[in-house]
Amino acid sequence: VGDMITVFVPSFREAMLARLFQSMEVSQRGSTAGIVVLDNGVSLSARARWPQVRFLPVPVPFVAAQAFNIGFAAFPEDDVVVIGDDSEVRSPYWSSRAEAMFRYWPFDYGLLSFAETTTAAVYGELPPPLKPLEMSVVAMGSGIAIPRRVLRQAGPWDETLIGYGFDDFDYGVRLLHMGYRLGVAGDVLLHTEAQATAWVERLGSWQAVLERQEVNHEVFLRKWRRSLPPKPWVVERPVTADHLHLQRCACLGGTA
Predict the structure, then answer these.
(1) What is the mean pLDDT of the chain?
(2) Are 145 and 185 in contact (CB under 8 A)?
């Protein structure tokens, strides 16, 4: 990707990394050069397999918001892309497309989520390159892109969300309250089969994952207080000023 764009991949799973990197290289040769793995336990032998990739250690146990903040702070001038290690790239020339997406970024969008192979079924169409669809829910996918100017305005991801999930919803709602839109971009298409399996591997069972999710759920509810539907993973985008007021975040100076 371009000189002022850094791609981050949080991971501790070498088989998943190998599959993702292979799909990137099939899409565009040489495109894994300079990628930064937010390393949560990748072996030395695996790191040696990918000398073109940078490995940035992040603490164990893994906290997504903390890992993102460490990575974003290490490259303080760059626009950022984050791609889950459970993804495969399905677009040709994905790196060049991501670079063009930032070059022609729609100014009123704070974050773009890469389209996935399920996007057309959800939104009725796959957005064409450089023409994102506005997200109707705060539910980010396996790949996201954020300009540096937005990162500076919004500040760090919330590291009190130490469990599983809701960290991305929190960040998305914050961007909405700052006046930004959230979008789905068809510039880069991803395929993801095994979301959340990393957490099962880390914690040993789905029950343990649900318990960690409940930790973040409670933090999220305390922070946003009211006007959340029963399942916050489909948080509705505020559509009126009253709705926006009810969801306003205390940390941004609002009151519920």
Answers:
(1) 85
(2) yes
According to DSSP, residue 3 is labeled T
What does the alpha-carbon distance between residue 140 and residue 167 come to, in Å, rounded to a whole number? 10
pLDDT digits (tens, 9 = 90+) for 165-202: 788 889 988 898 888 999 999 999 999 876 566 677 77
> 17 is written with which tokens?
């990394």
Contact (CB, 8 A) for 142 and 53: no
Task: Kindly state the tokens that stand for 127.
Answer: 């957005």
Beta strands in the chain (DSSP E): 5-11, 36-39, 54-57, 79-83, 87-89, 109-116, 133-134, 143-146, 181-192
HSE-CB for 117 with a 13 A CA cutoff: 9
Q: Where would I find the H helices in 77-138?
A: 94-103, 119-123
Q: What is the rounded distance in angstroms from the CA atom of residue 35 to the CA atom of residue 189?
A: 18
Q: Is the pLDDT of residue 3 over 90?
A: no
CA distance 94 to 113: 14
Which uninterrupted H or E stretch holds 41? none
3-state secondary structure at position 228: coil
- Are 101 and 112 within 8 A, CB to CB? yes
- Does the pTM surpass 0.90? The reply is no
Residue 223 has pLDDT above 90, yes or no: no
